[in-house]
Amino acid sequence: xxxxxxxxxxxxxxxxxxxxxxxxxxxxxxxxxxxxxxxxxxxxxxxxxxxxxxxxxxxxxxxxxxxxxxxxxxxxxxxxxxxxxxxxxxxxxxxxxxxxxxxxxxxxxxxxxxxxxxxxxxxxxxxxxxxxxxxxxxxxxxxxxxxxxxxxxxxxxxxxxxxxxxxxxxxxxxxxxxxxxxxxxxxxxxxxxxxxxxxxxxxxxxxxxxxxxxxxxxxxxxxxxxxxxxxxxxxxxxxxxxxxxxxxxxxxxxxxxxxxxxxxxxxxxxxxxxxxxxxxxxxxxxxxxxxxxxxxxxxxxxxxxxxxxxxxxxxxxxxxxxxxxxxxxxxxxxxxxxxxxxxxxxxxxxxxxxxxxxxxxxxxxxxxxxxxxxxxxxxxxxxxxxxxxxxxxxxxxxxxxxxx
Length: 404
Description:
Helices cover 51% and strands 12% of the residues. The protein is of the alpha+beta class. The strands form 4 sheets. A 4-stranded antiparallel sheet has the order 1-2-3-4, with helices on one face. The chain has a 3-stranded antiparallel sheet with strand order 5-6-9.
């Protein structure tokens, strides 16, 4: 190999470059050699090797003083600090989920470990154990991966991890912690009702107290919390549109209207004529009930906590019965059981959203428009609906094959 002692760099037999620096290990100077930069990328030129060496020297001095100034922190210390300073503005549900994962799983296994002693292989083995040995759902195991990224990111931002360790754990594609390989038979979570099932569901919900909620899922693809958090003031009958502004949630045993979980979830969606006709009919019934069911409304009405923290009358919500009884996200649990018993259909409200998205994808709706209608933060999530194989999609494929 070609050497350049003066500059501390050298060329490898394959034409790439490397460098060496002296570092302090337990008070002793030790020469180390590297062939990649701080991001794990190979050094293709002499110039890149020089730059990488300068960066490595700067980081080594920086880390030396950081280690001298900062005490070693345990994972428990890091998570505690994150809870205090790192999750301001996080959704209530997100905080509850993080705390649940920490208390029920991570605290006992990793809490007392020093943050800079944990290796990629340890975490990979742990995720593999959760997925393959304990049989946890893939999406559930992904939440553990996100927790590890969160904890290591907090540690790095507070100088408890040097950049080389952080890059190894969370940045470099070739080394960073990642999910186990998905099982062949893993449920992709995209469940689509065929036309026959939709016809049966239409008949089942017709005339029930949950008909409006069902139609909002069927024709708008709303999440169940968005559906039950919908106000009459969000519906624009003139422009056939619905503004999604908030969601319903149970917090500390109280029913609340809370902000949406993500910025992209706040959106304007458009309704078909069938849904508009139904909502106009329900809206008219509500107005008539103001005169005929006044006493019942006063007795049945539930006060909910609005997004501003003040109490509001439940009658402002679309999914409140004319007599003032409120409908909540729990209202669908009964129907889920009954649909399974009477129709033999495995029904979840969220499957209406899957069906809505998949049907629009089959109609060649541009990805960015479908992404907006679904309230997704990433086009990758939306692409699942284009990849989902529904019965209608198979029929289209068969028709094309016949045309060959």
